[in-house]
Amino acid sequence: MINLFNSPRHTNNAIAKAVKSLTQHGISAPEQDRFIAFLQSEDIRSLYHTNPRLIADQFKLSERDTLKLLVASLKEGIVTLNWDIQCPVCQGVDFAATQLCDLRTLHVCPVCHHKHNSDADQQVRVTFSIDERLRSLSKEADDLAFRNHIDAQYGVVSGHRLLTLQMFRELFPRETIPPNESLLIRQVTILFTDLAGSTALYSQRGDSQAYSLVNQHFKLLFEIVDRHNGAVIKTIGDAIMATFTSPEDGLKAAIAMQETMQDFNRRLESANPLILKVGIHAGPCISVNLNDRSDYFGTTVNTAARVEGLSQGNDIVFTSSLISQAEAIANTAHYKYEKSSATLKGISEPIDVFYMHVNNKATVK
Ligand SMILES: [Zn+2]
User: Fold this and answer.
1) For 84-120, how does the pLDDT look when each residue is reduced to its tens digit (9 = 90+)?
2) Distance 84 CA to ligand 1 centre (A)
């Protein structure tokens, strides 16, 4: 793949050959062809610290599919990743970070020396550049006015968004910030699930059959999280912890999970179905390095876990942080929810919680 010759023909061949390797990551042939043409002939300014939304718009892809294309390309050495940090005071962008381990809790602007939190929602954004082994980036590639124009037109993709891409976590599991450093996440939606009565499930079905059922349920939930623009941060026994950048995605994923589990149990036709408990809460937290993996910490995470503990199974428990999304969903899909109050362990004041009951269309009487 390394191309030492910079003649256009060699460049074009090298790009085509490199992009064809994306088949193994599920990137379709038409998408590859468009990407080859883009990398071969696009204005060089569009290939340096490229805003992913520019590609999404040109390729008519969702942001998630665009990021998947770029993350697969990163894995295959077609592009490089930049964690660009914009100073909230002078608006200058620091291009120094190319890996998560280059980021620190506090960032000092190289231009105006202002010190600020590395805020993964507002200051840290991700861009991609073509690997210079494929096409050299001449001086003209670095055009600030051009990039500002694109950013103003499309908005930027936050660092938090990339951290919430399942494929990024899978292909780059060891990409983390350094130990003892943290990234501020201004707004994250955290979803916990667990299986109710799994002890009974194991004793009644036997270990191997119960294990197989639990794994099938994991596979279904992982797919739902990915489809709703989220990422599974970890599994804990029969439980998962997933994050979303938008509360709406988190709540819709929760509903899809309960509907899918109802279908799953119907197919199972068993006396002991898998009963899924779900809890969601949204708020700020920090992203840290735990055992060489990116993890999330803070009151928001603890609250989400406690809220899941209130779930009786076959329901979704959420806090007032998701109420406007719940109202919108309830209005269109007729999902009912009730308000209640709960005192959560470790949290001094009682909080409002809501119980949503999801009736799969097939079961609605
Ligand atoms: Zn500055």
Assistant:
1) 999 999 999 999 999 999 999 999 999 999 999 999 9
2) 13
Residues 345 and 336: their CA atoms lie apart, in Å, by: 27
CB contact at 8 A, 207 and 160:
no
In sequence order, which residues have a C-beta less than 8 Å from that of residue 296 and are 6 or more positions away? 185, 188, 190, 233, 241, 243, 285, 286, 287, 288
The DSSP code sequence of 263-319 is HHHHHHT-SS--EEEEEEEEEEEEEEEETTEEEEESHHHHHHHHHHHH--SSEEEEE
Gap from CA of 314 to ligand 1 centroid (Å): 50
pLDDT single digits (tens) 45-77: 999 999 999 999 999 999 999 999 999 999 999
Bridge partners (DSSP) of residue 344 are: none
Q: What separation in Å is there between the alpha carbon of 107 and the centre of ligand 1? A: 10
Mean pLDDT of the chain, nearest integer? 93
Contact (Cβ atoms closer than 8 angstroms) between residue 103 and residue 97: yes
Q: Please, are residues 172 and 108 in contact by the beta-carbon 8 Å criterion?
A: no
| pLDDT at 362 exceeding the cut of 80 | no
Q: For residue 88, report the distance from its CA to the centre of ligand 1, in Å.
A: 7
Is the pTM here over 0.90, yes or no?
A: yes
| C-alpha dist (Å) from residue 233 to 120, 125, 177, 236 | 16, 20, 15, 10
Looking at domain 182-363, its CATH class is alpha beta
| Predicted confidence (pLDDT) at residue 349 exceeds the cutoff of 80 | yes
Dmax (CA) for the chain in angstroms is 69
Domain layout of the chain by residue ranges: 8-166, 182-363
Amino acid code (one letter) for 29: A
